[in-house]
Amino acid sequence: xxxxxxxWKYGDDINxxxxxxxxxTYTITDPVEMGEHALEDLDPNFRLLVxxxxxxxxxxxxxxxxxxxxxxxCLLARQVGAIIAKxxxxxxxxxxxxxxxxAIICPEAAEALEHGDRVEIHLEAxxxxxxxxxxxxxxxxxxxxxxxxxxxxIPYTRRKLGIER
Length: 165
Description:
Number of domains: 1
Order of helices and strands: EHHHEHEHEHEEEHH
CATH superfamily: Aconitase, domain 4
CATH architecture: Alpha-Beta Barrel
Number of helices: 8
Largest sheet: 7 strands, mixed
CATH topology: Aconitase, domain 4
Distance between the termini: 25 Å
């Protein structure tokens, strides 16, 4: 699976309330509407200018805070292609996998890439390419790739169990 897009760069400790404001937690249930509020308190231009396939690059502990899935769903609604970070909060990382949003731990790329850079990511090869250089990360395991290809953990599980829906 190959992805490409423009980098949106942010810092350390971007929490789930910054990714999707907590004030909407119980009032917005439609993922498309969630996308209209993605990163609105951190970067009001994000939802207006992000393009399908664009990549978020961040520092350490991306997605810290609560376990709300809206913080992943709102980025998927904006068609973010992947997130590259120095590290992720554990539950956020798992929510990304469950919802088929590639979350890549690559401190070297997170440090070197700048806002506006173009990147190409090859998940199976564990490679990020940009004009800044080539950065490697452990290739994603076959099962995680299968989850991504199925569109998330629920469709993957249904397929594995032979359940149609």
